[in-house]
Amino acid sequence: MQLELLMVPHLLLGLLLLPLSPSASAAVTHLPGFHGPLPLYLETGYVDVEEKTGTKLFYYFVESERSPGTVPVLLWLTGGPRCSGFSGFAFEVGPVNFVLAPYDGHLPQLVYNPHSWSKMASIIFLDSPVGSGFSYARDPKGYDVGDMSSSLQVVTFLNKWFDEHPRYRSNAFYIGGSSYAGKIIPLIAQYISEGIEQRKQPVINLKGYLVGNPITGSRYTDSNSRIPYAHGFGIIPGQLYEAAIENCKGDYINPLNNICAGILNTIEKLLSEVDHDHILDDKCVRTAPNPVNAAAERNRFLSEEHIQQNVPSPHPTINCFSYRYYLANIWANENVTRDALRIKQGTIGEWVRCITGLPYTGDLPSSIPYHLNLSTRGYRVLVFSGDHDPGVPFLGTYEWIRSLNFSIVDDWRAWHVDGQSGGFTVAYANNITFATVKGGGHTAIRHQPKQCFAMAQRWLDNEPL
């Protein structure tokens, strides 16, 4: 696959002239827009993951605020593919949030996130695959990656990172992420597990992984539950749902006949009236400059790239969650920010939260066999889903977990935060737990940070939800 250079000019500022330098990291004590010194240890840096193309992955490392020598180390990946790890740092489990205020021409402000998962773990936020965030390659051919190759680069990153941070080798290690990251995390875990069996050094102390609103790669698995979900939430009426059942014979992905195709088209029009990340949210500007074609619209929930494209466009209003992405684009493109983060000059032009226009091959057909293999091997697994996500509904996620045919060890029940239900959960043999997050969308953490913090803390502490 050839790289279309004209589609990504911000990646081409002097890349071919950059020398291949060793991995480097630096402590960051202050962030522009954050009042005073950071109340925790933050490190940023690059790690070489492919010498031939000069591919370097950029990371943010936040040391835990609670006993960093003993608490887990968590690699947090963002979906997309090719959405920056900064999404996790500022919008999900990381230590800062943007102050929601109308942009007045000054640098957007940051505040401490009271629900930061750094209270329970040390976290690596990674710009992966290459081309995400501040990660780059000297050779444009380096940007031609896919599920398999980018996952191997993550493993290379981890091996080198632990080499450079040996004090964390004995800590329990977990991988986490949501959406498209949920597809490749089991693959990365599988590669690490194989490395452990082959006694490769350094041995990564992998204990398990957690995935939120995860995509599996199988369109049928990820998508088919959207129809019964839409019916359950009153988006489509009973007679239309019954017609879909009768004419589509349970397959809402590949229409069996013209009647089924017409029904699915009507359903898609009705679904387009609600936000595809959270069924109760206002429909908002996604800062996408071009109309989404019909085929892409049908599969929009398989990618997060619709949220932020390469070219700026009218920004969302402040009531929209995506307004935070607008502020992030401004913040990350200020020279003072790049200086603080120690970004190498000449590597990245305009920073965007999620980048399109680079080749990417989705060559992992389904992650479900990896979930089965890893849980059978004894690795701990937490799968959680926002119950207000119409794009990757919890119904479908629950069904593929059930298809693993593990026996139930803790039957379906509510789990609680402050005396109220945070959602519902069921635990299976082989240490796999499924949980819904009440009121959560795609992704659940963005909408329900307090509940997700409690859920993750209990799970990481090996306690029942």
From TrEMBL:
One Gene Ontology MF term: serine-type carboxypeptidase activity
Signal peptide residue numbers: 1-26
Record keywords, A-Z: Glycoprotein, Signal
GO BP terms: proteolysis; secondary metabolic process
Keyword presence, RNA-binding: no
Family: Belongs to the peptidase S10 family.
PANTHER family: CARBOXYPEPTIDASE (PTHR11802:SF364), SERINE PROTEASE FAMILY S10 SERINE CARBOXYPEPTIDASE (PTHR11802)
Protein name: Carboxypeptidase
Origin species: Triticum turgidum subsp. durum
